[in-house]
Amino acid sequence: MEDPESAETAAPPGLSSLLPPREFLRSRKGQLLLAESVLSFIIFICYIASLAASFMMAPLLEFLLALFLFFAYASKLNEKFKGVHWPLADFLRCVTAAIIYFAISIAAVSKYSDGASKAAGVFGFAATIVFAIDFYITFNDLVTFLKQGSSDSPEGHKTE
């Protein structure tokens, strides 16, 4: 028979198994991806409620991509699937998201007069800053990775 005390201390399987580890939530990348997901979802809801509903597709796609990368990094899929260059994909996602959010935020604030469009524009400017921080950090990681790759075999480049 099992000890009843050990059965009580073990975590029951369920929704808690879907939550990311605390170490990832405390990391800078985890916090940035969580902020990107939350801001994209808020912007998506604001655009649905506004007159600028034609802009709702960009925040929806960015929300889904940020959510996917959040769970991919949390479950360490980036270490299991080596065929995808994860930092480069994340860098391109952040650059395009920052540019798109900046453009649609300017359009939403200047062209539409309803409150939801203005709120979406303001949250869009905040998302632009968060995505810009993320692509700056990811760019620095890419540069260090490329410097390590080019310094591995300097003799091979000289003989060719």
From TrEMBL:
It is found in: Membrane. It comes from the Eukaryota. Keywords: Membrane, Transmembrane, Transmembrane helix. Signal peptide: none annotated. It is a multi-pass membrane protein. The chain crosses the membrane at residues 32-50, 56-74, 86-108, 120-139. GO terms for cellular component: membrane. Pfam families: MARVEL. Its main location: membrane. The keyword Hydrolase does not apply. Residues 24-143 form the MARVEL domain. This is CKLF3 protein. It comes from Pheucticus melanocephalus (Black-headed grosbeak). The gene is Cmtm3.
